[in-house]
């Protein structure tokens, strides 16, 4: 696996920089994950918009991945298979000029039924995160996070 751009050889003298970049990536991915979870605790996912073009992303996702069931656990092997990677790459490229950091790595819950955790989290690209979480939110699958934080009687704040 290459750590640098395609066609560029790795300079051992610069290898420390890659370690720093990897650490920076990890920090950014964890910040994104934590921020999203904090938002879900403050607002029902079904009321949340993740981007300015959620409707477009959702319609495109449903068209390109009609078999995807947001209620079930993601089959990571299928998603990351040769065919899966190709399908996702084609999907994501439509957002190259529309969504900032569209291909940046992030963390995605494998199932909408669980919090982020070591066994419940997979590495994904930002557009995979958006597509899947928008679908989950449209179906109200993330509303439990808010409801857990706001027991009965406090419903009006996020409804």
The biggest beta sheet reads: 2 strands, antiparallel
State the low-pLDDT regions, or none. Answer: 1-10
Structural class: mainly alpha
What is the straight-line distance between the termini?
Answer: 46 Å
Order of helices and strands: HHHHEEHH
The general outline is: globular
Evaluate the radius of gyration. 17 Å
| Alpha plus pi helix count | 6
Q: How is the largest sheet built, in terms of strand order?
A: 1-2
Q: What does the average pLDDT come to? A: 87
Overview of the structural elements:
The protein is mainly α and about 160 residues long. Helices cover about 45% and strands about 5% of the residues. It is built from 6 helices and 2 strands; from the N terminus they run H-H-H-H-E-E-H-H. It has helices at about 15-40, 55-65, 75-80, 80-95, 125-140, 145-150, and strands at about 105-110, 120-125. It has a two-stranded antiparallel ribbon. Helix 1 (about 15-40) packs across helix 6. The chain is globular, with a radius of gyration of 17 Å. It starts with 14 loop residues before the first helix and ends in a 10-residue tail after the last helix.
